[in-house]
Amino acid sequence: MKILVAIKRVVDFNVRVQVKPDGSGVATDGVKMSINPFDEIAIEEALRIKEAGKADEIVVVTIGVNDAQQQLRTALAMGADRAILVESESEIQSLKAAHSLLHIVEKEQPGLVIMGKQAIDDDNNQTPQMLATLWKRPQATFVSKLEINEDKALATREIDAGLETIEIKLPALVSTDLRLNEPRFVKLPDIMKAKRKPLDVINIDETVTGFDDKELNIENYESPQPRQKGVMVESVDELVAALKEKGLV
Fold first, then answer.
1. What is the rounded distance in angstroms from the CA atom of residue 45 to the CA atom of residue 2?
2. Cα(244)–Cα(238) distance, integer angstroms
3. Please, what are the domains in the chain?
4. Among residues 127, 1, 124, 139, which one has the least CA distance to residue 58?
5. CA atoms of 40 and 42, how far apart (whole Å)
6. pLDDT tens digit string along 192-240?
7. What is the pLDDT of the chain when averaged over all its residues?
8. I need a surface site. Which of 2, 130, 178, 248 has the fewest CB within 10 A?
9. Dmax of the chain from CA atoms?
10. Closest Cα to residue 174, out of 121, 124, 137, 207?
């Protein structure tokens, strides 16, 4: 079985995000970029499935600028076999990303697609569901435990009421939650080996032929308002009075 893992290049989660002075976007010049944390979990799960003898090949794919090859090389250093960069100089929104990934899925014919449930830059949580729908295959989202049994997968997923376990028939798509696993550290020898692994680059226009590119237009970015200083009160009556003064009760 072949596993396809889709990843995204994002600002590292340890970096304090800054909005550009003109409000046109997020400042990324000189900022550390990394693999989206949920996608690292997806890579780790694919590696564990392969190490258990239930997969033969892991292909990792991303959509982004040419510099995203760095994140693909990191995935290869973790243990993926091949990488594909769908090159795009502009920001890609969820639906277009799903259409582009569908092209790769149809070409590669994987038995399982694994993605992070969402990216930490936009938090949309849309692309996995859209891709599964376009692919017309079963999906299991927010998965915290995954078992592969021949042509089926048993997925434990987190829902509002607790945990839900579902069985899906492969090929299928799975999106990962934080509690699925702990990604491994990349070792220096593996980084050197990753430089020799195949990495193909294709233009996004080759993957979205016929796509009606009507997407959201983001007009402005703003930083969150600074958190206001707290106010100490001496009694419940004083608290109620302060809330009434602000029109909150």
1. 13
2. 10
3. 2-214 (3.40.50.620)
4. 1
5. 5
6. 999 999 999 999 999 988 777 777 888 888 888 888 888 888 999 999 9
7. 92
8. 248
9. 70
10. 137
